[in-house]
Design goal:
Elements lengths: L2 H32 L3 H11 L3 E4 L6 E2 L5 E13 L8 H21 L5 H14 L15 E2 H7 L9 H4 L1 E10 L7 H4 L12 H5 L1 H5 L3 E8 L2 E8 L6 E4 L3 H18 L3 E8 L5 E9 L5 E2 L15 H11 L8 E4 L4 E3 L3 E3 L7 E4 H7 L2 H11 L4 H10 L26 H5 L9 H12 L4 E2 L4 E6 L2 E5 L4 E3 L5 H16 L8 E4 L2 E5 L9 E11 L2 E15 L6 E8 L9 H34 L1
Parallel strand pairs: 2-8
Antiparallel strand pairs: 1-6, 2-3, 3-4, 3-5, 6-7, 8-17, 9-10, 9-24, 10-11, 12-15, 13-14, 16-19, 17-18, 20-21, 22-23, 23-24
Helix pairs in contact: 3-4, 10-18, 11-13, 11-17, 12-17
Length: about 600
């Protein structure tokens, strides 16, 4: 074998051995990575994965009709400090130690939830821990700070240079607040936590519109550190503009609360509605707490109950409109009561047998008279009576923006005698909102309109969607029937001998006025319903109501007040307690409306 051939073989052998050794080394390294170094490299791989993070959208505001905040997401911040930023460690850590005292003093002065020494200890501890392999990023304040406080903090020495010099950043949070406190709180609603979904009221009904759409960010390495970089911008929620007026809401809630405190009732609700538009200007629901105070808890305004004598107006309208009775027909009522079909006895509180006209029977709110009118008009045929109510749209569920609102319960009874009880508001159920809508129809020349709580949706002050007044029934009844009913409702308040909401007398003298007012004329109807207790009606537990409209001559507003189980028995009555509330509301509302109109007119003149 020649030298050249031998050298060639040796070269190939050396190359083969080198390749083999390299291959074995690779196998060994793979084995080590998969066993001994497995966890280490998995952690490295995990840290390199880009993860998308949501950018929370700012929840929209809920506003009153004047643009005032009823519910808003206010920005608040946690302050954090990442002492690993490179700038703090330059020149032998001189930058950090040069400014740590001034930062601590500034935080104590602006926020004040810790002493200067406590702030300094937190920052120094984190700084020392992060000099090794530590990752300590503490929250400097105990609480979230406001936007105003944040503006002051960013002016502090070193902090003003930005996050890459100071390490101080602000973790954005949003808290839902109600600037007017408890006003209309149950209607406005609540949300789960600060960033959750609406779980009651308008917060729930308009969850999709208020919530907006979250954006998307991803983690990328920027300037030697990982940062969240926006991929898709968030879309903030829309603002919900309600029909509520914060000033009128305060008037309504104050009037109701004062009466509840006086009567020590279980609960009360009150609604003020604009007659022509159906706009709810105020709505309040107050429940009695264990300590005797009152707060918003349950939305009684849209919860159906037996309406009691406020239903007499409905029953009489049906009979009048069908031509079954005339306004000046006479009815005899009996001191000892009246038995219908030998099974259902009806009683009044009147001291003697009396003959009433139909008009005066409603003014004095006679159970016997209305039971006689309805049973005679419909010949014991309850289905015919219910069909008439259906034609008046009283069996429709009045849509409300409040989630969980009850629909009416007016059913054809299975027995022959229940119709006589339906005549004065038992064995039927309506919510205060539905009762209000019916009486508002009387005030609105027979046009029944749907109550409205939201007028529009806005984005940055611009209208995105507008909600308009919706007619439920263009004509509730004949014009002559409407005129007759209005006369009856006038008498309820202004007939000092018979009207249940007119005056309170003692020894023949007027000692108190109920719904009567010299400042604004009101027409309406009282209602008192016995409450079921252990399956039986009791004469000591009542639900009282007054519903009416004002000014009577040209109605602008309709109002209902309902009070459950007042404790000032036997002195309470619906005309005095609930009528007084509506009278107070009417007087203050008209005064407010007049002042507002004058103020608005002055502004228009100024613009010109």
């Amino acid at each position: 074998m020649g030298d050249n051939q031998r050298n060639t073989i040796l070269r190939f052998a050396a190359i083969f051995l080198l390749i083999t050794a390299g291959f074995i080394a690779v196998l060994v390294k793979i084995f080590v990575i998969q066993t001994k170094e497995r966890d280490q490299w998995l952690q490295v791989a995990k840290s390199q994965i880009k993860t998308n993070q949501p950018i929370p959208a700012t929840r929209g505001n809920i506003l009153d009709c004047e643009g005032r905040m009823l519910a808003s997401s206010m920005p608040q911040y946690y302050i954090t400090m990442d002492t690993r930023v490179e700038a703090l460690h330059l020149g032998g850590d001189t930058l950090f130690y040069k400014y740590v005292d001034s930062i601590a003093d500034g935080l104590n002065r602006i926020i004040g939830d810790r002493t200067s020494e406590e702030y300094k200890n937190i920052m120094v501890t984190a700084f020392k821990a992060n000099k090794g392999k530590g990752k300590m990023i503490p929250k400097l304040s105990k609480r979230r700070i406001t936007y105003t406080e944040r503006k002051e903090v960013v002016k502090l020495p070193l902090v003003r240079r930005g996050v890459y010099k100071s390490g101080i950043s602000f973790e954005d949070q949003h808290r839902r607040v109600k600037p007017f406190g408890s006003l209309a709180s149950r209607t406005i609603g609540t949300i789960y936590g600060d960033g959750g979904q609406g779980n009651a009221g308008l917060e729930k009904a308009f969850e999709k519109e208020l919530a907006g759409k979250d954006g998307v960010s991803t983690r990328q390495r920027v300037g030697g550190r990982w940062e969240n970089v926006t991929v898709e911008d968030e879309e903030d929620g829309l603002d919900v503009v309600t029909t509520l007026n914060a000033d009128l809401q305060d008037i309504v809630e104050t009037a109701l609360r004062e009466r509840l405190n006086a009567t020590r009732a279980d609960w009360g609700c009150c609604i003020l509605m604009e007659t022509k538009t159906g706009h709810i200007k105020a709505i309040t629901n107050l429940d009695r707490n264990a300590d005797g105070s009152y707060s918003e808890a349950m939305n009684h305004a849209v919860t159906r109950v037996e309406p009691g004598s406020t239903f007499k107006t409905i029953a009489l309208m049906a009979a009048l409109d069908d031509g079954k009775v005339g306004l000046y027909d006479t009815i005899k009522v009996y001191r000892d009561g009246w038995m219908y079909l030998g099974k259902s006895k009806h009683t009044d509180s009147h001291p003697k047998d009396t003959i009433y006209t139909v008009r005066s029977a409603l003014a004095i709110s006679s159970n016997i008279a209305l039971a006689k009118i309805v049973t005679k008009a419909y010949d014991g045929d309850a289905a015919k009576f219910v069909r008439k109510l259906e034609k008046m749209n009283l069996r429709d569920s009045f849509y409300s923006e409040i989630p969980g609102a009850d629909g009416p319960r007016i059913q054809v009874p299975k027995d022959a005698v229940t119709i006589s009880k339906m005549a004065y508001g038992y064995s039927v159920e309506l919510s205060p909102m539905q009762i209000l809508a019916f009486y508002n129809g009387i005030a609105n020349n027979g046009k029944m309109i749907r109550p409205m709580l939201v007028s529009e949706l806005q984005q940055d002050g611009m209208t995105v969607k507008e909600f308009k007044t919706e007619t439920i029934k263009s004509s509730m009844c004949k014009k002559s029937t409407l005129n007759d009913i209005r006369l009856c409702l006038h008498d309820v308040v202004w007939d000092n001998n018979l009207g249940t909401a007119s005056v309170r007398k003692w020894a023949g003298r007027i000692v108190a006025y109920k719904a009567q007012s010299d400042l604004v004329h009101i027409a309406g109807k009282t209602g008192t319903a016995q409450l079921l207790r252990n399956g039986r009606y009791t004469g000591k537990n009542h639900r009282m109501t007054f519903v009416g409209y004002f000014p009577e001559e040209a109605p602008q507003y309709t109002c209902i007040c309902m009070i459950e189980n007042p404790q000032n028995w036997p002195a309470y009555d619906a005309g005095y307690d609930c009528g007084n509330v509506v009278r107070t509301i009417a007087e203050k509302t008209i005064a407010y409306s007049d002042c507002y109109a004058i103020h608005k007119g002055e502004l228009e003149l100024t613009k010109r």
